[in-house]
Amino acid sequence: MRAPGLFVVVSGLASAGKTTVAEPLANTLELRLISKDAIKEVFFGVVGFGGWEFSKTLSRAADAAMVRIAQDLDGAVLDNLWYAETVVELLAPLPGPFVEVFCRCDPVVAFERFRRRDRHPGHADEERDVEATRAAFFTRADKLPLGMLGPVVEVDTERCVDVADLASRVVEAARRA
């Protein structure tokens, strides 16, 4: 199911299942997958890592690299922890059209997944205050879906996702936009 020219923005809380959805969705739509965490982890391998503040700096660099890579493609699936405050400006260089795939996941479930996941130490997750991080999940949940880029297709990532159905809904949303 080819979707040339389409940029699929996969949104949701940290550990909501964005990457788990984005990888097979990109394959099904025959689009390239660009993952901010994959870029960031390459940066860790090249420049090293050094704590939470440095990790946030590399996050901004990975955001910029992600968008720059996408500019040279005829559509892509963009896997990132997007912020409503910055997503429009960040994606402004891309021509669109955009469809947002919102990975809906209860903040309690996402937070527990976050605490259990094994990530590159460069993300400096262990330096984050547990209670502040938990509170941030609930604050961010209130700001999702982003709803400012184009149609939103919602998927419940607490259950097994039918990727073929999701891809069909994405293509239909793009067609209606």
Give a short summary of the structure.
The protein is built from 7 helices and 5 strands; from the N terminus they run βαβααβαβααβα. The protein has helices at residues 18-29, 36-47, 52-71, 87-91, 107-116, 130-141, 163-176; strands spanning 7-12, 32-35, 76-79, 98-104, 152-156. A 5-stranded parallel beta sheet has the order 2-3-1-4-5, sandwiched between helices.
Apparent shape: globular
Proportion of helical residues = 40-55%
Give the CATH superfamily: P-loop containing nucleotide triphosphate hydrolases
Largest sheet: 5 strands, parallel
- The overall pLDDT, averaged over residues, is 93
Instruction: Give the low-confidence spans.
Output: none
- Helix-strand topology string: EHEHHEHEHHEH
Number of helices: 7
What is the CATH architecture annotation? 3-Layer(aba) Sandwich
Which sequence of strands runs across the widest sheet?
A: 2-3-1-4-5
Q: How many domains comprise the coordinates?
A: 1
| CATH fold node name | Rossmann fold
Distance between the termini: 18 Å
Structure description:
48% of the residues lie in helices and 15% in strands. It is an alpha/beta fold and 177 residues long. It has one domain (7-176): 3-Layer(aba) Sandwich (Rossmann fold). A 5-stranded parallel beta sheet has the order 2-3-1-4-5, sandwiched between helices. The longest helix has 20 residues, at 52-71. The radius of gyration is 16 Å and the shape is globular.
Secondary structure blueprint with pairings:
Elements (H helix, E strand, L loop, with lengths): L6 E6 L5 H12 L2 E4 H12 L4 H20 L4 E4 L7 H5 L6 E7 L2 H10 L13 H12 L10 E5 L6 H14 L1
Parallel strand pairs: 1-3, 1-4, 2-3, 4-5
Helix pairs in contact: 1-7, 2-3, 5-6
